[in-house]
């Protein structure tokens, strides 16, 4: 018996992660009730609650009749209240968050029905091409299932982040959010002169003319630089084609102009509407059940401590970088 329990506990703890679902509609209603409790006196609240209780009782009774009738006719799905599934994607350089995104999307696609929609609250300044290419492909799964997809940008969706946003049926952005930056960049230091100065030899063996173009420790040639630049241009062309296919309003000329922009400026080819994600969620609560879906990976204590230290260092570095690159208001 002890072995069985131990085995069960071990199996349970080895799970990669869990899916967490939060009913944002209920949270919104609870917040309203809490505020009203402080706005009105006890007599008013008591009378109002009595009326609300009677109203809800009648609505529940009518709903039961409606469901029973739909069950007889075999049309239960048609009577199901529509849902808005809310996902959050805060992207890093390598877009490692796509690991959680794919699980969340898979769960939604397994239960979504006609009338349901998906909202992704996106925040990313871009990163590695293959990482954000995969993230965009995950969002394409939602489109392939004919589920309306909205991307909300409250802060930034630049470069790879904007590539993800372009998959959506609709891009909504806060007034001062940064969007666009349709370009490709690659940079790396070269320590070859430093190695030579310290009499350190570096050897690199390759098979194939362009197995390696630029290197951090070897001596880079003009031919290698030209090849690397060619690869960047090819990636840029693919990037622009991807966006042009999904944002039909964008012409190649406008693509060249979409280096970077803010939503409050009149650039209809970058976004569709100026609005915050909070406005979208609150509006949806009126006629939909709004559910926030998050896939949470289980982490060991050592991993959590290491991540906390890394996040603190990243945050400090980003503050210094942003102070030098962005105006402070």
Automatic annotation (TrEMBL):
Q: Which Gene3D superfamilies match?
A: 2-enoyl-CoA Hydratase, Chain A, domain 1
Keywords, comma-separated and alphabetical? Cell membrane, Coiled coil, Hydrolase, Membrane, Protease, Serine protease, Transmembrane, Transmembrane helix
Coiled coil where? 46-73
Cell compartments where the protein resides: Cell membrane
Q: Which CDD domains match?
A: S49_Sppa_N_C
Q: Which GO terms describe its molecular function?
A: serine-type endopeptidase activity
Location (main, coarse): membrane
What name does UniProt use for this protein? Possible protease sohB
Q: Which organism is it from?
A: Vibrio ishigakensis
Lineage summary: Bacteria, Pseudomonadati, Pseudomonadota, Gammaproteobacteria, Vibrionales
